[in-house]
Amino acid sequence: MGVILLIAITVTLVGIVATLVGGLGGKGTPPSLTLSVRAEAGNDNWVKLRITHTGGDSVSLADVIVKAGDDETKMGENRELTGLLSVGNTIEVWVRCPTDYRTDNIITVYIIHKPSNQMLYNNPSIVVEKPS
């Protein structure tokens, strides 16, 4: 449990630093927010991501791309999101990946702000869990 917490804190700090540094000189400023992501194995190459907004600015989901996979060249993505993600909210996003991920596989998840083309979330070590 301590290791998972340490990883979560590290990922959060990396996301904050990347947002601050990446936002300088970009096309608009992305929202500053903290997210938590969990992944569950699905059927036929689908992965369900549970994305929880834990702090910061709200973001329109129409302005977000969610990507998941094990290699930048082989990632599935979901660009068809709607609604608003605010503090305390959790959304479920399904992503069809080129590979069928099973429980305990490790994937990378990117959440990108389309208007600024900046990374809102980047975690290369999300463990795929059993479906609930």
Task: Fill in the keyword field for this structure.
single chain; 132 residues; alpha+beta; Immunoglobulin-like; seven-stranded mixed β-sheet; globular
Protein architecture, described:
- With 132 residues, this protein is α+β, with helices and mostly antiparallel strands.
- The protein has a single domain, classed as Immunoglobulin-like.
- 16% of the residues lie in helices and 48% in strands.
- It contains one helix and nine strands, in the order H-E-E-E-E-E-E-E-E-E.
- The strands form two sheets. A seven-stranded mixed sheet has the order 5-4-8-9-1-2-7, covered by helices on one side. Strands 3-6 form a two-stranded antiparallel ribbon.
- Strand 4 and strand 5 (74-78) form a beta hairpin.
- The mean pLDDT is 86.
Gap from first CA to last CA: 20 Å
At the first level of CATH, the class is Mainly Beta
Largest sheet: 7 strands, mixed
Total strand segments: 9
Taken in chain order, the helices and strands follow as HEEEEEEEEE
Broad structural category: alpha+beta
- Which blocks of ≥5 consecutive residues have pLDDT under 50? none
Number of helices: 1
Shape: globular
**How does CATH name the architecture?**
Sandwich
Nearest-integer average pLDDT:
86
Q: What is CATH's topology name?
A: Immunoglobulin-like
Q: Give the number of domains.
A: 1
The portion of residues forming beta strands comes to: over 45%
> What percent of residues adopt helix (DSSP H or I)?
10-25%
TL;DR of this structure?
By secondary structure, the protein is an alpha+beta fold. It has a single domain (2-129), classed as Immunoglobulin-like. It is built from 1 helix and 9 strands; from the N terminus they run H-E-E-E-E-E-E-E-E-E.
